[in-house]
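seq:
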Amino acid sequence: MLPAASQPDDAIRLTYRIETAGDPERLAAKIASDQSTGTFVALPGETPELKARVAARVAGYRELPPVATAAWPDGAIAGARYRAGEADIDFPLDAIGTDLAALMTIAVGGASAIKGFSGFRVTGLRLPPAFAAAYPGPQFGVAGTRRLTGVQDRPVIGSIVKPALGLRPHETAALVRDLVAAEVDFIKDDEKLMSPAYSPLAERVAAIMPIIRDGEQKTGRKVMYAFNISSDDPDQMLRNHDMVADAGGNAAVICLNAVGFGGLRFLRKRSRLALHAHRAGWDAMTRHPSLGLDFSVYQQFWRLLGIDQFQINGIRVKYWEPDDSFVRSFAAVTTPMFSPADCCMPVVGSGQWGGQAPDTFARTGRTTDLLYLCGGGIVSHPGGPAAGVKAVQQAWEATVAGVDLDVYARQHTELAQSIAFFGASDAAA
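struct:
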């Protein structure tokens, strides 16, 4: 058992959960050597001083309870109990630098390919101060999102335009008009709604932005609409960005795993929009508890690159993720890496309606610094989208005031209808 040493200012610390039929501590040492100096005979010009400068080292090791199943077949033995351990490994900055592609390749991708694991997961990442200077971080974040939406002292309430609705641009505009009239704060394209033949992005922008601007003229408050500008071509993504910004838009959806580090970095350097992150594909990296990487690790890359708002599921979601995982994700994106300015606005979504507001508030530290995103929880309300917005607003009013939702619903028709309609399943698709 090796207690963790303090992290040097010039080292990148990663924590790995290792499962194996062999010795986890020995595999930790192998990660450190294979992913830095290697175990080969020194090559011409490779001095001991050079190897010492770039060598990774195990800074701490903790034995964990054994596990009864193996995630990977490598070294699997029928009926065996596999040993597990958690290792902290420091990678010198000289070996990796501040390039996130290098960090992901060496410390995550390369390490996971080493032979002998029956399970391998990256559970922690702590970056040295050099990364704060190398990356821009969020341009807007929590404070900027509140400023752009004009919402203070309560959650930002949002809704989603789903491709499953099959809406053409003029039909989407009609839904947006209803939501704007209902005083929703935020609307976004679904992650799957990019530029399909039935609803090209350019036509959506042309149909929706006049309604957003008209609402601003009438109320003095501009509803934030996040158009999905994602593309595998950074130049096309920038053209999409400029189209939205030039039309008066102020936000964009970015599908992180589709556009990649380079695509987001290219965009962030030129961006005038609040960047709303969707993590589609993250589940494949994390769903098995013995494989992949924790969200606390994953989200740091994207925050450095400049994401302002981060979708992280919610309480009692329609997907696989447990509530405890959501709570950890919420804490991750709201915990400073280097300063409070690098925190994202957490976006609570996935089957949400007003019914999850009390538990969300209680389990996230009683904060209202969040974007509460409801798709079906608003547009499928039996009274229509406008009533759906009011119902969610009423749920949060009651929650922050400490009033039971059923009690508050006695005097608030929209909330009462919402409880009757969504309450049985407790999740709105």
